[in-house]
Amino acid sequence: MAFKSNAKNEIIPRFNPFITTILAFVFTFLLALLIWWLFGDPKGDLFIWKTFRLYKITGTGNLFLNYIMLFILALILYLQFIDPEMKLKEVLKTQMRMKEKETGLALFLLNFALMFVIAGYIILVWGGVSSLFNEVKDFSFFLISSIGIFIYLLWSFFWGHWPLETLNRNTLRIIEFLWCTFLLVLIYAWFAFPAQIANGDFTQIIRLNAFIGYLYSAMAVMLLLAVLWDNWPIERIKSQPYQGIFASLICLIGGYVFYTLLVLASTQSWFLWESPSSDWYLRNAANFSIFVISWTYFWAVYCYNWPHEYNKRFNVFMRTLLVFVLAFLNYFVYYIYLGDFLNESIHFYDKLPFAFQGLWFAILIIYNKFFERVGLWKKPLVS
User: Fold this and answer.
1) By CB distance 3.0 to 4.6 Å, which of 63, 149, 361, 380 could disulfide with 56?
2) For the whole model, what pTM was predicted?
3) Are the CB atoms for 104 and 366 separated by under 8 Å?
4) From the CB of residue 290, how many other CB atoms can be counted at a distance below 10 Å?
5) What are the φ/ψ torsions at residue 351 (nearest 5 degrees)?
């Protein structure tokens, strides 16, 4: 099997394409393990683990997980609204004469700082509304980040700047960011916030684990549609807002169907090794979806969305099949072996794949976008 790029200016593998992809997986996975053991391992005994360990389960959340999700949110905001053309990267390379690794490190640090800006904004502004937002360790930060990632990507993927195409580029980005942020607040206040407060004035519409399961199922469908399927079949709709509406409905309705199937599978005896908690099957939809999300990105970027040389329906089918096979394998390996290896939990259903899988997902984005897969890929010679 050979992966081939379908883009003219795409960087090319330094070695055999298949071997290069395997090496990319090994490198990013080992890097995720290193970061985990330095900052996330709940049972780490070294000084840096005891001093800076971020995996702290409290009554309201997981500090390490919250920082991972906030960082992914920072990446999405930077890549979709702040500098989608990566002009800063070119400035660093051309005017400041930075090398590829130095440029990638500078962009990483910038986004790392942006993560703290987002966290500070939530604490200072949202914290004035409710004590749920007073500390990063609170579960609210995970929910805010998750909803934000979904909303910002959904708008960026499918709506094509409608109806503001004629506006100045900077004005356009600010308005779109504010609009998506309004949707984030609206969805959080409608679905998540009522489920988090006790004896409040809001009526809970949906159980929190059910909302998380559906949200991540819809996010998985969104990435499948936009990234793995190359916007098939919505590419046939050329005008807005019809394309955006149709794509959003596919994500929302398809996400609900996917969520329902995962919930049903999670209640079957063949799926279980021990008795789960009462609502584990609701959360498990999100648990599996995070594997689909990370492998969708890996396949689309590091495997060049192979295959793409056949008819579109067959290409889409094969990509989806391969991604789901990898996601299933990753899911079972995680719950049987990797969860204990990471010291996350001694109980099967208490393991939280978001933390480590989200860390790996963030590394995949950084290595691709900021470092241009340096070391394993190279830029083609310009004739």
Assistant:
1) 63
2) 0.92
3) yes
4) 25
5) -65, 145
* Tens digits of residue pLDDT in 342-351: 877 655 566 7
In whole angstroms, what is the distance from residue 202 CA to residue 196 CA?
10
Lowest mean pLDDT of 93-97, 172-176, 247-251, 322-326, name the range: 93-97
CA distances 327 to 228, 294, 308, Å, are 14, 8, 21
For 166, how many CA atoms within 13 A lie in the half-sphere containing its CB? 1
Core vs surface per residue 35-73: b (16+ CB within 10 A) or e: bbeebbbbebeeeebeeebbbebeebbbbbbbbbbbbbb
Hey, which residues does 57 pair with through a beta bridge?
Answer: 62
Q: How far is CA 248 from each of CA 159, 302, 324, rounded to the nearest angstrom? A: 9, 26, 22
**What's residue 49's pLDDT?**
59
Mean pLDDT score, 42-61 = 59
Burial classification of residue 158, based on how many CB atoms lie within 10 Å of its CB (0-12 exposed, 13-18 middle, 19 or more buried): buried
Closest CA to 320 of 284, 295, 347, 355: 295
Distance between CA atoms of residues 366 and 376, nearest Å: 14
Tracing tokens 């990013």 back to the chain, one arrives at 28
Report d(CA 24, CA 3) in Å as an integer: 13
Q: With beta carbons less than 8 A apart as the criterion, state whether 290 and 353 touch.
A: yes
Q: How far apart are the two ends of the chain, measured CA to CA in Å?
A: 29
Average confidence (pLDDT) over 2-18: 68
Question: Can you tell me the mean pLDDT for 54-79?
Answer: 80
